[in-house]
Automatic annotation (TrEMBL):
Cofactor note: Binds 1 Ca(2+) ion per subunit.
Gene Ontology biological process terms, A to Z: proteolysis
Function: Secreted tripeptidyl-peptidase which degrades proteins at acidic pHs and is involved in virulence.
Listed GO CC annotations: extracellular region
Lineage: Eukaryota, Fungi, Dikarya, Basidiomycota, Agaricomycotina
Cofactor: Ca(2+)
Species annotation: Phanerochaete carnosa (strain HHB-10118-sp)
First-listed, main subcellular location of the protein, grouped into a coarse class: secreted
Protein name: tripeptidyl-peptidase II
C-alpha cells in the first residue's frame, strides 16, 4: 500500500510540474546587494558546473528540541535517556510528501539528486549555470572580492515552484557569500618559554606565567587516575590544515604527564582532511587541543577529527563535521572545538540549520563545546566596531560556550580581558539561563545595554584557565593564550566525569547546559575582570553568571557529585 501511494504521489507531482501553472515561481531568498567587499564582475559562463545543496524542511524540529531538553534536564523522567541514531533521524526526516515533491521536480528537469545526510534532509545536485538559472529562475554571476581576489558564483535572488513551498527550506550556495577570513582558531600569542626545556612537571608549579596539566589538575581538583572505559570517547575538531605531531605529544607527555605512559590518539577525516606527521608540520591549534585533552583527560580515548578544505557547506566545514558525526553509529560523547568567527558574517539559514544539527547530536548524548572567542566584546578582529559583536557559533543555545580566565596568583583566577562574551543577535535566550541573564542585564548601566539586543542567548556558559598555557610545538617549549586553551580543558573535565558515569552504568552528561545551570554551586565563581572592546570596557564579571566567564570555572568534585557520582 505504501509503495503504491508513493508512486501515485510521484506521478501527481510530475504531472503538476509539467504543467504551465506549476511553473509559477515563489522567491525563496533574495538580497539587495552582494556581501561587503564583493562586486559583480560578469555573468557566469553557462557551462560552469555548480555544486548545490538543497535543504528540505525538517519535519519535527520542535519535537526534537523538546526531546533534547527532556533527556538533558535533571529531574525530568527522561533525563539521561538519550535518543538513538534512528530515533533522531525519524524525528527530523522530511515528510514523504516533501521528498516526493522535490525529487519529482528535479527528475522532471532532468537533474539527479544525491541524499547527503542519514535523515535525508539534505540533497546535492551538480548542474551547469544555464540549468541552475532555469531551475531556480535565477541569475548566477561571478562576484569578486576586491581585497582578496576570491571569486564566487552567486545570485541575488532565486525561486522555487509554488508547489514546493513548505518542502524546500533553502538552497546553498546561492545568495550567501563566502567569508574571506573563513573560520578562525581562537589561540594567539605563542612565545618561547625562558627556562630550560629539560625541567619536569614537578619543577613547573602553577604560576600566572606557567600553566601546565599539573596546574590545571590542581586548580580544579581534577583526578590524575587513568580512565577505564574504552567506550567513552572525546572528539577534537581540526580545521584549516592543522595537524598534530605525535613526537611533540610524546615530548609533552614525557615532561608533564609521564604517569600516562604510551598514550596516543586516533584520527578520523572528512572533506579531504588528514593528519600530517612530517617534521615541522605541527599546527599550533591542533597541538594545543590534543596535548590538553590527552594530557588532562587521563586515559580517555581521544580522536582528532580532521576536516579538509573540500568543504562547501558555507560554514568552513562546521556543518559537515556534525553531519559526519550524526552518521556515526557511536559518535564521541564529547566534542571540543576551538574555532569560530563573527556571527553577523554567517548566513542566517545555514546558522539555524547548523544549530538544529547540534540539537540532534546533543539528543544522542554528545556534549558539544566551543571556544567563545578572543576579541572581548568586539568579536574577532573588529576593534573599530560601533556595537558589540557576538561570535559564532556560541550563540546557538544547544552547545556549551567556553570563556577564559587568567591567574593572578597560583590559586586565584580573574576574567581574561580577551574572553569573548555577550549576547547572540539571532537566538533568543533559552529557558535554562533566562533568570540569570535577566538578573545580570538588569544591573548593567544603560549605555552598555544599548550595545546589544536584549532578550537573547548569553554566552559563554562556563570558563577555564586560558593564559600562559605551556605546549610543545615542533620541538619547542611555548606558552599560548586564548579560549582555545580553555575549551579542551573543560572538555576533558566532562570526559572524565563521563568515564566515571560509564563505569557506574550511567548515561553520559550529553547536552550540558540544563545540567550546568541547575548546579551553579559546582563552579568557582569568577567575579573580577572584564572583556573590553568596541571602545568600551565591555562587560564586567560579577557574582553568578556573567558574559565574561559564564557560571565560572569547574570544581571537579562538585560537578562529579552533581552528576550523581
Amino acid at each position: 500500500m505504501m509503495v503504491s501511494t508513493l508512486i501515485a504521489l510521484s506521478s501527481l507531482f510530475a504531472l503538476a510540474f509539467a504543467s504551465p501553472v506549476a511553473r509559477r515561481m515563489k522567491v525563496l531568498e533574495s538580497r539587495a546587494l552582494p556581501a561587503a567587499g564583493f562586486v559583480r564582475t560578469g555573468p557566469a559562463a553557462a557551462n560552469t558546473t555548480l555544486d548545490l545543496r538543497i535543504a528540505l524542511v525538517q519535519s519535527n524540529t520542535d519535537t526534537l528540541i523538546e526531546a533534547l531538553y527532556n533527556v538533558s534536564t535533571p529531574g525530568h523522567p527522561s533525563y539521561g535517556q538519550h535518543l538513538s541514531k534512528e530515533e533522531v533521524e525519524q524525528l527530523v526526516a522530511p515528510s514523504t510528501e516533501s521528498i516526493t515533491a522535490v525529487n519529482a521536480w528535479l527528475q522532471q528537469a532532468g537533474v539527479n539528486a544525491t541524499t547527503m545526510t542519514p535523515a535525508g534532509d539534505w540533497l546535492s545536485i551538480s548542474v551547469p549555470v544555464s540549468k541552475a538559472n532555469s531551475l531556480f529562475d535565477a541569475d548566477f554571476a561571478v562576484y569578486t572580492h576586491s581585497e582578496t581576489g576570491q571569486q564566487a558564483v552567486r545570485t541575488m535572488e532565486y525561486s522555487v515552484p509554488h508547489a514546493l513551498q513548505g518542502h524546500v527550506d533553502f538552497v546553498h550556495p546561492t545568495v550567501s557569500f563566502p567569508n574571506p577570513s573563513s573560520a578562525k582558531s581562537f589561540v594567539t600569542a605563542p612565545r618561547p618559554l625562558g627556562r630550560s626545556a629539560n625541567l619536569t612537571a614537578r619543577d613547573t608549579p602553577c604560576t600566572p606565567l606557567s600553566v601546565t596539566p599539573n596546574c590545571v589538575q590542581t586548580l580544579y581538583n581534577i583526578p590524575s587516575t587513568k580512565a577505564t572505559q574504552s567506550s567513552n570517547q572525546l572528539g577534537v575538531s581540526g580545521f584549516l590544515n592543522e595537524f598534530v605531531n605525535e613526537i611533540d605529544l610524546n615530548t609533552f607527555l614525557g615532561k608533564f604527564r609521564p604517569d600516562l605512559g604510551d598514550t596516543g590518539f586516533a584520527v578520523a577525516s572528512l572533506d579531504g582532511g588528514s593528519d600530517s606527521e612530517q617534521e615541522g608540520q605541527a599546527g599550533l591549534e591542533a597541538s594545543l587541543d590534543i596535548q590538553y585533552t590527552v594530557g588532562v583527560a587521563s586515559g580517555v580515548p581521544v580522536t582528532f577529527i580532521s576536516v579538509g578544505e573540500k568543504n562547501q557547506d558555507g560554514l568552513s566545514g562546521f556543518l559537515d563535521i556534525v553531519n559526519f558525526l550524526l552518521n556515526e553509529p557511536n559518535p564521541p560523547q564529547v566534542l571540543s572545538t576551538s574555532y569560530g568567527n563573527n556571527e553577523p558574517l554567517m548566513p542566517l539559514s545555514l546558522v539555524k540549520n547548523l544549530c538544529n544539527a547540534y540539537a540532534q547530536l546533543g539528543a544522542r548524548g554528545t556534549s558539544i563545546l566551543f571556544a567563545s572567542g578572543d576579541g572581548g566584546v568586539s568579536g574577532e578582529g573588529q576593534q573599530n566596531c560601533t556595537s558589540f559583536v557576538p561570535t559564532f557559533p556560541s550563540g546557538c543555545p544547544f552547545l556549551t560556550s567556553v570563556g577564559a580566565t587568567a591567574l593572578t596568583s597560583p590559586s586565584t583566577e580573574t576574567g581574561a580581558p580577551f574572553s569573548s562574551g555577550g549576547f547572540s543577535g539571532i537566538f533568543a535566550v533559552p529557558s535554562y539561563q533566562a533568570s540569570v541573564v535577566q538578573s545580570y542585564v538588569s544591573g548593567l548601566p544603560s549605555d552598555i545595554q544599548s550595545e546589544f539586543t536584549s532578550g537573547m542567548r548569553g554566552y559563554p556558559d562556563v570558563a577555564a584557565i586560558g593564559t600562559n598555557v605551556e605546549i610543545i610545538l615542533n620541538g619547542k617549549n611555548l606558552t599560548v593564550l586564548g579560549t582555545s586553551c580553555s575549551t579542551p580543558i573543560f572538555a576533558s573535565v566532562v570526559a572524565l566525569i563521563n568515564d566515571e558515569l560509564a563505569a557506574a552504568g550511567m548515561s553520559p552528561l550529553g547536552f550540558l547546559n540544563p545540567f550546568l545551570y541547575a548546579n551553579p554551586g559546582a563552579f568557582n565563581d569568577i567575579t573580577t575582570g572584564s572583556n573590553p572592546g568596541c571602545g568600551t570596557n565591555g562587560f564586567p564579571a560579577a557574582s553568578g553568571w556573567d558574559p565574561v566567564t559564564g557560571l565560572g570555572t569547574p570544581n571537579y568534585p562538585a560537578l562529579r557529585a552533581a552528576a550523581g557520582l
